[in-house]
Specification:
The chain has 374 residues and is an alpha/beta fold. The protein has helices spanning 16-26, 42-47, 74-78, 92-102, 125-134, 145-153, 171-179, 182-192, 212-225, 240-248, 261-268, 283-289, 324-335, 338-354, 357-373, and strands at 2-7, 31-37, 57-58, 61-63, 69-71, 82-86, 108-112, 139-142, 161-163, 198-203, 229-234, 253-257, 273-275, 294-297, 315-318. It has 2 domains: 2-169 and 357-373, Glycogen Phosphorylase B (Rossmann fold); 171-354, Rossmann fold (3-Layer(aba) Sandwich).
Length: 374
């Protein structure tokens, strides 16, 4: 039996369904898949977003210089036929494994974006460093086709790249949606004192890259054209107080703070559109599961999951990303065209159904088997 180890400092809760499915898919091929991880740091303890894996291997972690950390996973790596690591500059163990790969002593794969999509300095030292090491592995597991294109541009062999289409488990979202009755939705409307038939929903972290000022400025313009337009903002973060201040003079904007589980899903179901003019990430999948087209802009710092939005089909990407007026016009025009909106909502649902964590695990397992064979 061959061993494959995924080594990363933190075992995130949202990744567990993927790891479980991948382990099950590889077992019939005599591949023992292990996750090697460390105890969570203070940030993750505060977020409560980690989980222990019964079949995983927990190792100590040492903080080195600055943000650089060393995971004591070398012993597990040496016992493995393939090691998969996150492509991050701050992970010291990666460099030992990079050298081992270059010398032909250990088979190594990167799991990642290929670059920092939020970097304001793409030609800076950190990104140059990342580009240098990006080709010093045997295989690549890329989040989306955008990652594949970038890694190929660095000279990495395309036949050694697996695009797994990063996803999360939306099965609970779909089941919760199926259980919500029209009566329950009306109760939620009454609770939030919604009176309009045109409702946009924002769900996500509240921080600068989400562009809350832009969101509200465009909402004002939409409201001037569609008099019953209302906006629900769900989420927490450093800009929660800013969002609350912006909503004070606008009774048609409801700010709920962070919500989770069925509570969050029911709030999403009150809307027709997912309003995200700033950074788009995995939330696009939850939105699609709720049949909400994501309306965003060509913001230069999106996460790679923006690739899941098929512009004009399952959502919209407004090209003039600095113009609230352009964004508002696009949203208003869509709300005024119920037939097109219905088609887009259906397409968003199909997108989410295709990009499941099951499909992600299947593509990843295929890549693992290919990597082991080269």
């Amino acid at each position: 039996m061959k061993r494959v180890s995924y080594i990363f400092p933190v075992s995130h809760h949202y990744r567990l369904p993927f790891h479980e499915r991948l382990r099950a898919l590889l077992a019939p091929h005599d591949v023992d898949y292990r996750v090697v991880y460390c105890d969570p740091g203070e940030v993750n303890l505060h977020k409560k977003d980690t989980v222990d894996i019964p079949w995983g291997v927990k190792v100590p972690r040492s903080n080195l210089v600055g943000s650089v950390v060393y995971q004591h996973g070398l012993r597990e790596a040496l016992k493995s036929d393939l090691v998969i690591v996150q492509q991050e500059n701050s992970l010291a163990l990666n460099y030992l494994l990079n050298v081992a790969s270059m010398l032909g002593l250990k088979k190594l794969a990167y799991f990642g974006h290929g670059r920092n999509f939020q970097s304001r300095h793409p030609q800076g030292r950190a990104e140059c460093f990342k580009r240098f090491w990006a080709t010093k592995v045997d295989w690549w597991f890329g989040y989306t086709d955008e990652t594949r294109r970038h890694v190929e541009s660095l000279g990495f062999p395309p036949e050694r790249i697996t695009v797994f289409n990063n996803s999360v488990d939306t099965s609970e979202v779909r089941m919760a949606i199926a259980a919500v009755t029209p009566k329950r939705l009306q109760e939620r409307r009454d609770e939030l004192r919604l009176v309009g038939n045109h409702v946009g929903v924002f769900v996500g972290g509240l921080y600068p890259d989400k562009r809350l000022d832009f969101l509200v400025a465009s909402a004002d313009l939409i409201r001037s054209r569609i008099i019953d337009y209302e906006l629900i903002v769900v989420g927490g973060g450093e800009d929660l107080s800013l969002m609350q201040q912006l909503a004070e003079a606008r009774p048609w904007i409801t700010v709920t703070g962070p919500r989770f589980g069925r509570d969050k899903i029911e709030l999403m179901m009150l809307g027709q559109l997912f309003m995200m003019p700033g950074l788009v990430g995995l939330a696009v999948l939850d939105a699609g599961a709720a049949k909400l087209p994501t309306i965003t802009t060509a913001f230069p710092y999106h996460s790679p999951e923006v690739a899941y939005i098929h512009d004009g089909i399952s959502g919209m990407i407004v090209r003039d990303w600095e113009s609230p007026n352009a964004y508002a016009n696009a949203v208003a025009a869509l709300l005024e065209n119920p037939d097109r909106l219905a088609e887009m909502r259906a397409a968003a649902g199909r997108m989410a159904e295709a990009l499941t964590v099951e499909a992600m695990a299947g593509r990843f397992a295929e890549g693992v088997l290919k990597a082991l064979s080269v």
